[in-house]
Amino acid sequence: MLLILLGVLVMHLIILILLIVSTAASTWSVGGDRTTDLWYTCTNSNGGYHCKPAISEDWLQAVQALMILSLLFCFFSLIAFLFQLFKLVKGGRFFFTAIFQILASVFVMCAAIIYTVMSPDEGSVKFGYAYVLAWVSFPLTLISGLIYIVLRKKE
Hints:
Elements: H1 2-24, E1 29-31, E2 34-36, E3 40-45, E4 48-53, H2 58-87, H3 95-118, E5 126-127, H4 129-150
Helix pairs in contact: 1-2, 1-4, 2-3, 3-4
């Protein structure tokens, strides 16, 4: 049982790191000498790296908000898991943790879908690794939430 709990905790920490990197990294889309993330658009010109704030369209602000919400809910579910690990009665399930983790997965899925649909469709622009990390963290977060539903505390 200890190995299962340790495995779930490690998986949760990996998901949290993926969400942090995905939200903060500067490569949601890459094209030529330009990279775009949720916060800045950076160009590499004349040997320098110049960044300016990203466009302030509603869809990008929605993606920013959803990614931050997914980070917060994933972090709060980690805190809830640790709390429930010591305070939950024997045989109890980690429902509170599961709800927060599943909500985090829904938020990251919605953010990635909005970015996919609304990002400018330019021929030379491709999705970057931060975008891929967001999509990778979605099923992992959902699976983690489902594991928390099934998981029971034993002594």
